[in-house]
User: Which sequence fits this backbone?
């Protein structure tokens, strides 16, 4: 039997729940830099992933996934679609106007490392046909890599850069997951320690040299420890120059992070380097990470310690 509601009965109709925003992660970068590894990490994190989507289809594809109530989408694009890549910026602006949360990641890598990776895999670079052949395979490969850098340079300027030159596959996967689990549409601050002797991270927005600070390496009881160990932290904390350095970096970032956030930056990477990336830079990264986590989404990384740990565990 059907029940009829009388016309004068007061009924309350619940307002429809707000639709959750779709999260889009767009990955670009150099061939051989680890885009496939990054996509696997995102797939593990619950994203619907598509590799080498033609740029012409970007807006239509995302709108389709939004209509299907898909909330997490990751797309990889690269130089194989070079002719239509200039269409992407305008499409991203349209998607943002539709309420899509967009994060751009650019995987970069040193040329010599890419040459080594291609040599080991015996694969051809996708742009090798554009390199001027002079019967020197390595020179042709270097030319193809440089050509690809030129093609993708506009995307590098727009995106958060991840230098994969010194990252193993498992390290890259872990880093990608830590990035995407940070809240969308909010600036994420990344503190990273490194060793100058192994090169400056090319993806860093700010680099601070802390090699002038007292070095625990020359203390016998601290030499084998790291900046994450309490004994090392206590020793460094007794030196006024260490505390002064920390305070100066904190003051600088407190001033400019507000402006960076206002500029709609998704990620800001602050790299601190010492000689070996084991004591001073690690300690300051941990300390700054704790200080800034009170007001910002904060991640910490230790490039050299991650490599040491991976070697100990025999992780490829």
Assistant:
């Amino acid at each position: 039997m059907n029940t009829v509601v009388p016309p004068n009965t007061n009924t309350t109709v619940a307002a429809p729940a707000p639709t959750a925003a779709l999260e889009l992660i767009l990955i670009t970068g150099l061939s051989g830099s680890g885009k496939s590894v990054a996509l696997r990490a995102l797939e593990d994190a619950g994203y619907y992933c598509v590799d080498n989507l033609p740029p012409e289809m970007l807006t239509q594809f995302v709108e389709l996934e939004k209509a299907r109530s898909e909330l997490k989408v990751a797309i990889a694009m690269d130089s194989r679609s070079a002719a239509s890549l200039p269409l992407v910026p305008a499409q991203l602006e349209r998607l943002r106007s539709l309420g899509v949360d967009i994060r751009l990641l650019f995987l970069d890598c040193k040329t010599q490392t890419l040459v080594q990776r291609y040599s080991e895999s015996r694969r051809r670079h996708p742009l090798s046909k554009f390199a001027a052949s002079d019967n020197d395979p390595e020179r042709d490969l270097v030319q193809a890599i440089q050509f690809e850098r030129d093609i993708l340079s506009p995307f590098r300027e727009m995106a958060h850069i991840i230098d994969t030159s010194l990252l193993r596959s498992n390290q890259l996967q872990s880093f990608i997951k830590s990035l995407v689990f940070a809240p969308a549409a909010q600036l994420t601050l990344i503190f990273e320690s490194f060793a100058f002797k192994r090169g400056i991270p090319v993806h860093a927005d700010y680099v601070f040299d802390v090699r002038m600070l007292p070095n625990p390496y020359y203390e016998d009881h601290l030499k084998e420890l790291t900046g994450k160990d309490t004994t090392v932290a206590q020793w460094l904390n007794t030196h006024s120059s260490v505390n002064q350095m920390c305070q100066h970096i904190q003051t600088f970032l407190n001033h400019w992070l507000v402006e960076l956030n206002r500029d709609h930056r998704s990620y800001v990477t602050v790299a601190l380097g010492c000689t070996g990336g084991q004591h001073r830079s690690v300690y300051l990264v941990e300390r700054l990470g704790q200080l800034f986590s009170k007001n910002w989404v904060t991640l910490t990384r230790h490039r050299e310690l991650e490599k040491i740990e991976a070697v100990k565990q025999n992780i490829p």
Q: What stands out?
A: Residues 186-316 form one domain. The CA atoms of residues 190 and 269 lie 5 Å apart.
